[in-house]
Write a structure and sequence with these properties.
Blueprint: H1 7-16, H2 24-36, H3 41-57, E1 65-71, E2 78-81, H4 106-114, E3 121-124, E4 130-133, E5 144-149, E6 161-164, E7 173-174, E8 189-195, H5 202-205, H6 210-228, E9 236-241, E10 247-250, H7 271-279, E11 286-289, E12 295-298, E13 309-314, E14 324-327, E15 334-336, E16 347-353
Antiparallel strand pairs: 1-2, 3-4, 5-6, 5-8, 6-7, 9-10, 11-12, 13-14, 13-16, 14-15
């Protein structure tokens, strides 16, 4: 494992580094490129995670190394990084998804485009690679996503603007935003970073990564059971066969006050059904018992949705009125932004798709 002994200092320097390009003329061109590649905060963050995924899967990351002296905030050991390429041999950034201004450091680039500076946690993603994140309160309202060109010099008159597929379906770059003209025969380069537009929806404001969406769903299930069911024997027999025998048992929040239900009515306030259907694709369902003694449904890991759905909350039942509320996963309360006082009532106002 290669170590970067001056890691803390280099990390700070990278955070302060000017985003490419630097000259006034290039900045003007970048502004035009960004106007043509405008994304809302959710789309911008999805682009950032797409670049991370492609850098890890299509690139050839060198062996991981730990930042010397920089431990993860969640007790998961020393922060582990990957290089998409070698800055000393690929100074221009040819065919890389991580900007050369970030020295091709995949996790460092990703976390600093999505979050403001702060303690950094890490864990394994679905592909078994280490990923970094910070407290949701550190998430940037307007993240910075990479925009691409066919040449490293953004000032070149022959530098064509390139785009990922509109659904981020692959790691190919295209000549058009609709993803109909692959940029075959062209190299690609990160020409700079674009700031996302201001949030226009509550899903933009409470946007979650896949890992965070799964944490939200686990929180919903646990709080719905502990706050609105209580008794482990208060299950309802669905009559649906479980893949490991017997029939699936669920619990309902329907009898709780309408102003304090965690699951929402998408699946009739049924707790296990909500947790399972938002997290997984359809498939055989296994029934287990969780650590608290409640019935728990699971499906094979291969059936997990690439972008699970998760509920967001407000002080009224409408998604366009009242105040948006946010959970603190350390308790079962919901809070207005910046408030430390739990809301006396809350409603599920929408379900959002996780960021890639």
């Amino acid at each position: 494992m290669r170590r970067l002994k001056e890691g803390p200092l280099q990390l700070a320097a990278l955070c302060a580094m000017t985003l490419l390009p630097a000259t006034a003329a290039a900045q003007a061109i970048l502004q035009q490129r960004c106007a043509n590649d405008a994304l809302n905060p959710s789309q911008s963050e999805a682009r950032i995670y797409w670049a991370r995924r492609c850098a890890l899967s299509v690139g050839t990351p060198s062996s991981a190394y730990g930042y010397w002296g920089m431990m993860s905030a969640n007790g998961a050991g020393e922060l582990i990084e990957y290089n998409e390429d070698d800055y000393s041999t690929n100074f221009s950034g040819k065919n890389t998804y991580i900007g050369q201004s970030d020295v091709y450091e995949i996790n460092n680039s990703t976390v600093n485009k999505v979050y403001n500076f702060g303690p950094t946690s890490q864990g394994l993603d679905d592909q078994g690679n280490y990923e970094w994140w910070r407290d949701p309160a550190r998430r940037k309202e307007r993240p910075f996503h990479p925009t691409f060109g066919s040449e490293s010099n953004i000032n070149s008159s022959t530098n064509k603007q390139l785009f990922p597929h509109p659904t981020l379906a692959n790691c190919t770059l295209y000549l058009d935003k609709n993803g109909t003209q692959p940029a075959s025969g062209y190299n690609f380069y990160v020409n700079g970073y674009c700031e996302a537009s201001a949030p226009t929806s509550r899903c933009d404001t409470d946007r979650l990564s896949v890992r965070q969406a799964r944490e939200r769903l686990d929180w919903v299930r646990q709080c719905a059971l502990s706050q609105n069911v209580g008794s482990k024997s208060a299950w309802l027999d669905t009559g649906i066969p479980a893949s490991n025998g017997s029939t699936l048992k669920d619990y309902s929040e329907a009898g709780a006050p309408s102003s304090r239900r965690y699951t929402g009515d998408l699946y009739g306030y049924d707790i296990n059904a909500t947790h399972t259907e938002l997290r997984y694709l359809s498939g055989p369902t296994t029934q287990l018992v969780d650590a608290q003694g409640y019935y728990l449904w699971k499906r094979d890991a291969s059936r997990q949705k690439q972008r699970p759905l998760y509920p967001i909350y407000g002080s009224t039942s409408s998604n366009s009125t009242g105040v948006q509320l946010f959970p603190n996963l350390s308790d079962c309360s919901l809070y207005a932004s910046g408030s430390e006082t739990p809301a006396s009532s809350f409603y599920v106002t929408a379900y959002c798709s996780a960021i890639y």
